Amino acid sequence: MKSLTIIGAGISGLICGIYAQRSGWRTTILEKAGNPGGVSTSWKRKGYTFEGGIHWLIGAKKGVPLNDIWTETGALRDNNPVFFKDPVYTLIDGSVRLDLRRDLRTLSEFAPEDRIPLALMRFHVWCFTFFHSPVQDISGLKVRHPRRFSLMEFIKMGPAVLLTPLLMSFSAGRYIKRFRNPHIRKLLEAVVDPQINALSFIYTLSSFTSGDSGYPEGGSLRMAQNMADTFTSLGGKILYHTPALEVADEGVRTEGGLMQSDAVVISMDARTAIDKLFKPRLEAPWASRMRRKLRTAQCMFIALGVKADLSGWPRCMQIQLREPMHAGGLEFSALTVNNYSRDAEYAPDGCTVLTCILPGPSYEYWKAARADGSYRQLKQEAVKEFICHVAEVLPINEEQVEVTDMATPLTYERYCDTFEGSYMSEWMPWHLCHNAPIRLHKGLYFTGQRTAFSGGLPVAAETGRRTAQTLCKDFGFEFVSR
Ligand SMILES: Cc1cc2nc3c(=O)[nH]c(=O)nc-3n(C[C@H](O)[C@H](O)[C@H](O)COP(=O)(O)OP(=O)(O)OC[C@H]3O[C@@H](n4cnc5c(N)ncnc54)[C@H](O)[C@@H]3O)c2cc1C
User: Fold this and answer.
1) Whole-model pTM?
2) Contact 12 CB / ligand 1 (< 6 Å)
3) Where do the domains of the chain lie, and which CATH numbers do they carry?
């Protein structure tokens, strides 16, 4: 047996670990935090559970390639059946309510003036219905259960492949601007951050219409715990509260000493790793490009535990504000609010959890606040403002809010050491992400967010598998997936 050390028990590190362990490696995962999942996590506060990770799990549909990864790694099991929201978003703008349903049909009835752009959008979405994150075997590797990519699959993905360069070349916001009806525009702005490319927007919509994105019950932490259980049941070891300090030739240095191993996989944020884990710091053309050009996707996350039954309200509301909200030095004219009142596990009887992601570059703002001692107070003010805005629309008041929590980029930095506290990688128009390679040399590998295009859990999953295959190939192991 050869030994493998993986740095990070995020989704990508866990997936890599499960496949490696199954293929015959003796694997240890070092994790800085106290639980698995990395940024894909949920946590409890006074009887409430705050979902701070998965909103949409792509690959939830049985039969698509990514679903094989989720089932092979035990991420999806009987204890977390996937739920498919419909409507996926509801716009609340004064007296106007407009649903984004999975079939997209209601939009044309609402805005006949946008019949043509809506038909074009449905066509674009249809083109991506058969497009799935490619999960393939790398060449030259011995694989116990090979994945065959049939000619038919390839042909079905043709229209999406042809459209890709066009949709990559401009932003989701520009795509949405073509709609004349302001409510249609406001509703569609809930789907992805309007600054990222239109391809991500269309791909996300198509994952709704094709039924490929859902929400696993029990959320992020149960899914990550399921994967950690799979890994340990195969004989793998996870050492929590054990940060890796340095990658050396013989293995990984921790506070407890050097952990020798035949191979090392770095699954923590590669942008952080190239500066922190190598002494001297890692220098290579791709690393310099990353240092110069990488743009981080940052967000703030607010969660409330409210003593009120909001089960009559939509699950995901795009609330237009009369006055903008200010937080982290940014201004928001709308809030995308998730309502977990129908999910018994999230709140005590008759109570509700409300959460909201506020995207945008606020890292420097919060860093300055920490430096001058105003961090805690500014967070409290932001939460207070959030409650006031939400209370203008929902039947709640400040006294009913029992628990509040807020994460800033500094929170993600502190817990997961993501670069500038980013919460996922970001795909801007014509932007090439500036990734790290999967294989640095025989025995040293990267996986996760910064090793492939787009972002989110699909990238974590696909690269976790690909990295495990790469190290199996390097050391002459057969790759065993199930
Ligand atoms: C609020 C929020 C909502 C999201 N919503 C979605 C969604 O709906 N759909 C979707 O697909 N994606 C979503 N994402 C993004 C998705 O969760 C991430 O892209 C994905 O989980 C990243 O996985 P990863 O394994 O690559 O990285 P990470 O999760 O960053 O894992 C890296 C791990 O390494 C550990 N680590 C760091 N430094 C060290 C060290 N020195 N030693 C040991 N361990 C270390 C970290 O603690 C972490 O556990 C969301 C993220 C957030 C925060």
Assistant:
1) 0.96
2) yes
3) 3-40+53-79+216-293+434-475 (3.50.50.60), 102-137+149-210 (no CATH), 299-416 (no CATH)
